Amino acid sequence: MRVLAAMSGGVDSAVAAARAVDAGHDVTGVHLALSKSPDSHRTGARGCCTVEDARDARRAADVLGIPFYVWDLADRFEHDVIDEFVAAYEAGRTPNPCVRCNERIKFAAVLERALALGFDAVVTGHHAQLSGAVLRRSVDPGKDQSYVLGTLRPDQLAHAIFPLGDTTKTEVRAEAARRGLAVADKPDSHDICFIADGDTGRWLRDRLGTQPGPVVDAATGETLAEHDGAFAFTIGQRRGLRLGRPAPDGRPRYVLDISPVTRTVTVGPAEALDVSHLVADRAVWPYEGPVVCAAQVRAHGRAVPAIAEGVGDELRVTLDEPLRGTAPGQAVVLYDGDRVLGGGHVIRLGR
User: Fold this and answer.
1) Looking at the domain assignment, is residue 202 inside a domain?
2) Which of 135, 139, 256, 316 has its Cα between 20 and 30 A from that of 266?
């Protein structure tokens, strides 16, 4: 097959491209330039999309002997990922930009362009297994990325290749070293790639300005503190509330609710975070009637037993045991064992 290897400049994508070459495919490497200011998007192991990353990707392509190009998708990334991230926080939701990037950039913009150029598939370094259009967890649970791919459509997965799903990260690095790839020991990027210093609150404040409001106790309605932007809080947050005094029972308080209209942040005890029902939209769910499954709402969170059913345009999930700290905006991905059944984006919660 003629395949396009998305090469981020990291070790996973380099080894994935190498394996595609070994498999006999006609491979072309491409690096996605997603940042309008590439020099500002890496601090140590944080972030990505720098000039350094582009050079690392090119060096890897040279070692593999494959053609290499850079595609500038910065405008689309800004619109589809960053702008939506800001809008979601401003609306009181907690988005996952990695899920959105996979949906709209890697397996929409890139795949669409690849197919238009005559490529048969896109190869990436995601740690997940794929058989046809059936997505499964990686054999390395600590690096499994099936969650961030869990809302891709079957037609997108049909044109994807994930060569690393049967390999642990330790084995990937050892293989990169054997192949002479300079990125073998390169640190993984982590946190949100476009927030290089990891300070999401400050990053949002720079874009949204100061929007003061009260922090209110759920039990008493008492105003405990003032904040300068509800967007800087997330459901389930405990640290950084700056309430000034403990709860009467001495127990810690957590963010229970964020109201962007009134700019009110409501706090209370941990048990008030328990959620037993989720409703999601933008769902990929091809099944009729209720389906017994397991639901996961964080990239490396635990999956809990559940029953899911598509109702109109919504995906409704009833959990056998409560999940704590779930928030609108997160993705819910549903599994049968290690097999991904589908998923959607949480819009409502029930307790």
Assistant:
1) no
2) 316
